[in-house]
């Protein structure tokens, strides 16, 4: 909630710098600076990897569900 992000544990070891950059920009605390959907779609990580993404619909549903739960938990 303070905008201080850490990506230094073992879960982030295999995540690219571009992906981490996108996550940071999506989680920016200042709403004026925070990436919107259009910004995300233009980000280097998306444009560079869009031909290689092959995600099953069930995985997308799980991801969306996790994001909704994260948001709800942070609001409560």
What does this structure look like?
The chain starts with 16 loop residues before the first helix and ends with a helix. With 76 residues, the chain is mainly alpha-helical. The mean pLDDT is 79. It has helices spanning 17-26, 37-42, 44-49, 57-75. The chain has one domain (10-75).
Structural key phrases:
76 residues; 4 helices; globular
Compile the SSE list and pairings.
Elements (H helix, E strand, L loop, with lengths): L16 H10 L10 H6 L1 H6 L7 H19 L1
What's the total helix number? 4
Distance between the termini: 12 Å
Percent range of helical residues: 40-55%
| Assembly state | single chain
| Class derived from helix and strand content | mainly alpha
Biggest β-sheet, characterized?
Answer: none
Number of domains: 1
Beta-strand portion reads under 5%
Mean of all residue-level pLDDT scores: 79
Overall geometry: globular
Counted beta strands: 0
Elements, N to C (H/E): HHHH
- Whole-angstrom Rg: 14 Å
Q: Which runs of at least 5 residues are low in confidence (pLDDT < 50)?
A: none
């Amino acid at each position: 909630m303070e905008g201080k992000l850490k990506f230094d544990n073992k879960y982030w070891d295999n995540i690219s710098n571009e992906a981490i950059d996108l996550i940071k920009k999506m989680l920016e605390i200042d709403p004026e600076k925070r990436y919107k959907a259009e910004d995300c779609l233009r980000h280097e990580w998306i444009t560079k990897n869009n031909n290689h993404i092959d995600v099953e619909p069930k995985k997308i549903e799980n991801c969306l569900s996790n994001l909704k739960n994260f948001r709800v938990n942070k609001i409560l």
